[in-house]
Write a structure and sequence with these properties.
- With 728 residues, the protein is an alpha/beta fold.
- It is built from 23 helices and 24 strands.
- Helix content is 51%, strand content 18%.
């Protein structure tokens, strides 16, 4: 059910219907063949796959499609119940809410409300007003799939903040409001004893709340592939459950009573952690384990994992598309399979070490490495496609970070509890937690400096190739357990092939130049990436989600902005600049005039004139100001592009070498004299109606032309002198 649902999640319902027909036919055939029917194996597979298809179709027809009927409707009268605390991002406030009514019609649709100012409401208060409704993630496929997997299909915003808030009495709010208060109380208690980066890390470890972590710390964890330790997951829940159970077992309580209390602790932790999919997976598995103890029944780890995933698939079919759940399930499966099949072989091999101390130490080290390797091996295909990179230091990083994070989490929680009664100076657990958190932060910061260990993958096809080679290598290594020389030699050969392909292809792909023209309405926003360097040309437009789109693109490109080129403070060139710079600060800003209020954000940034030449090993930029009309010429070793900020720009006034650019990007209308460059590829950044009008002129001229026009970003990929365009 898990694999079928995860694979079909991103396809249209028609593909799922065809798959249902295939699996149903296979089920019937398998039941008609006596020998196959007796084994029950294939019938069970086909039946579960067919059920997975049915669940996906039902969720699409009865939940997703009815909700999407409201997408694109403006000025709707909405009555919604806020269900959580706000998230401050991109300069906006985002609230998860449940829509109770739309234009007087009763509904039950989860939505993401956004507002430029904080809504004066607490969870489970009612907000009522006129809102514009849109489809979440419509401009980026990865964001769309992420929201969809969470059951969030729609976003809503009020263009003039014309809404009313109806306060609900605390006594009338549901039980989850108490859980939210408890979560905030724990957070405040942690910051009371550690009011710095150490406290922010402790909050992330204990509650999974990463909002207070600095961009640098979060980037270090992500780059090393250990971000799972700062996301509440099965590791955290299992640690707490086993800690509670071990403490209770030391008391004189009945064995069954201990397990019942531990189960209650598991449920409470799931509530505090917010019922994320990975926590629910781990919680159900742990409850199966504890229930097995209560009824004195033998447990099976793989069956427990199957039960957990099946429960989620039945009640939340789209959850199978969540990357966090996929990573959680695959990592758990890898660890379970290692424990069942490889660990006995390794333990037998290590038993030859006669020295007891060396035997124990080597056993611990090998076990930690193999568990990390097993989890990484199974999650690598998803990780490669998701992050487009792989860091070989993730193995030692995990071996150190996992035990450190576990110890930090426990001591931090104890320190926060004691901090309510004991002065900070006498709070030993808090001092230990602070030390452990600092060691973990410094350790990840140090490892992240070794850039050579990160291999980038810029295309999905390359990622798929890596996944196939790696899995084939993994399969061969697993078979080598049979101790036949042919398999061992095969494992070594394929490991060598994998390493050579990984290094050579990643080096080749890292040279690609990527130019993304952001679909931002009436404005100019272009991100250029080449060999790990990112520059932003303009940050303007009229689209509501423009700031989040730009920031999201920078995050996907590595999270660093080397330079920004902003001609003036006009909205068409810098409307989103403040919001973007709150999330990521550029190393260099070349500007004519910046919007007010950016001085504090740019204290550490080198400031240059807009027309001053900018040149690095990878990218060179020359900008022009001709009669207060601006343009920038960008060149890499693969491609050249001219970006015109003003529709009235005189293109003929540029030097001849600039006119021969491969790509010409402009806003609103084509510049004067631009048709002289008949071999160029033209990209228009404009709203839909304007894009249609300009399209007619370009069709007449016979030039190659594409526009954003509200249909998504335009991406140009260039390598070895050739380039292609795609929409994303």
């Amino acid at each position: 059910m898990f694999f079928v649902t995860a694979l079909l999640f991103e396809f249209e319902i028609g593909v799922t219907a065809i798959a249902l027909g295939v699996f149903a036919a296979a089920l019937v055939v398998s039941l008609l063949i006596r020998n196959v029917r007796k084994t029950r194996f294939l019938p069970a597979i086909f039946a579960s796959a067919a059920v997975a298809c049915v669940l996906l179709i039902c969720e699409t027809v009865f939940v997703y499609n009815p909700a999407m009927e409201y997408a694109g409707k403006d000025n709707c009268l909405i009555r919604a119940e806020i269900t959580d605390l706000p998230e401050l991002k991109y300069g906006n406030y985002y609230y998860e809410a449940n829509i109770l009514e739309i234009n007087g019609e009763k509904t039950d649709i989860d939505v993401r409300l956004s507002s430029s100012t904080a809504i004066e409401a607490t969870p489970y208060d009612i907000v009522e007003g006129n809102f514009n409704i849109y489809a979440l993630g419509s401009s980026d496929e990865s964001f769309f799939q992420s929201y969809k997997s969470k059951g969030l299909f729609l976003g809503a915003y009020s263009s003039d903040n014309a809404y009313s808030v109806f306060q609900v009495d605390t006594d009338e709010k549901p039980f989850m409001y108490k859980i939210i208060e408890l979560r905030e109380g724990i957070k405040k208690a942690i910051f009371k004893i550690m009011p710095d980066d150490n406290g922010a890390l402790a909050v992330a470890l204990i509650l999974g709340d990463k909002s207070n972590l600095s961009d640098e710390i979060y980037s270090d964890f992500t780059e090393l592939g250990i971000s799972h330790v700062i996301c509440v997951s099965g590791f955290h829940l299992s640690l707490w459950a086993m800690l509670i159970l071990s403490v209770l077992n030391k008391t004189r309580l009945n064995f069954r009573i201990c397990n019942i209390l531990a189960a209650c602790g598991v449920v409470l932790f799931m509530l505090i952690a917010g019922f994320t999919y990975s926590v629910m997976r781990a919680g159900i598995m742990m409850l199966v384990f504890l229930i097995g103890n209560i009824f004195l029944r033998q447990r099976d780890s793989l069956n427990s994992l199957g039960i957990a995933v099946s429960v989620l698939a039945v009640f939340k079919p789209f959850s199978m598309g969540a990357v966090s759940l996929q990573l959680s399930v695959l990592a758990t499966a890898g660890i379970i399979l290692y424990t069942l099949y490889l660990e006995p072989e390794i333990s037998c091999a290590l038993s030859g070490i006669k020295n007891k101390f060396l035997n124990k130490v080597s056993g611990k080290v090998v076990s930690a490495f193999m568990i990390t390797f097993s989890a990484t091996a199974f999650t690598m295909p998803v990780g490669l496609v998701m992050r487009n990179s792989f860091n070989f230091l993730c193995f030692p990083a995990n071996m150190v970070a996992v035990p450190l994070s576990g110890a930090s989490m426990v001591t931090g929680a104890l320190g926060a509890l004691l901090g309510q009664f004991v002065p900070v100076g006498y709070n030993l657990p808090s001092a230990v937690a602070k030390l452990l958190c600092r060691i973990l932060i410094d350790f990840t910061s140090w490892l992240s400096e070794f850039k050579f260990a990160t291999f980038g993958i810029s295309t999905d096809k390359t990622a798929v190739l890596f996944c196939g080679i790696f899995l084939f290598c993994l399969l061969t290594v697993s078979v080598s357990v049979l101790k036949k020389k042919v398999y061992t030699i095969g494992a070594a050969v394929f490991a060598f092939i994998f390493s050579v392909c990984l290094i050579s292809l990643s080096i080749a792909e890292s040279d690609e130049t990527k130019i993304t023209v952001v679909d931002c309405g009436n404005g100019t926003s272009v991100l250029v990436s080449c060999n790990g360097e990112n520059i932003l040309v303009g940050a303007g437009g009229s689209d509501f989600l423009g700031a989040s789109d730009i920031t999201g693109l920078i995050e996907k490109a590595g999270g660093r902005l080397n330079a920004a080129f902003i001609p003036d403070a006009d909205d068409s060139a810098s409307a989103y600049l403040s919001d973007v710079f709150r999330e990521v600060i550029p190393d260099v800003v070349c500007s004519g005039k910046l919007p007010d209020g950016l001085d504090l954000l740019l204290q550490q940034t080198e400031k240059r004139s807009f027309t001053e030449n900018y040149s690095t090993e990878n990218i060179s930029v020359k900008s022009y100001n001709i009669e207060n009309n601006y343009c920038s010429h960008i060149e890499t070793y693969d491609i050249s592009a001219v970006i015109c900020f003003d529709p009235s720009f005189d293109y003929g006034a540029l030097p001849d070498e600039m006119k021969a650019a491969d790509i010409i990007i402009f806003r609103g209308n084509f510049p004067f004299g631009v048709f002289e460059c008949t071999d160029s590829f033209y990209i228009l950044n404009a709203e839909e109606e304007r894009a249609v009008n300009v399209q007619e002129s370009f069709n007449i001229s016979g030039n190659r032309f594409v526009s954003t026009g509200g249909n998504g970003n335009i991406i140009i990929r260039a390598l070895n002198g050739d380039f292609k365009s795609e929409r994303g």
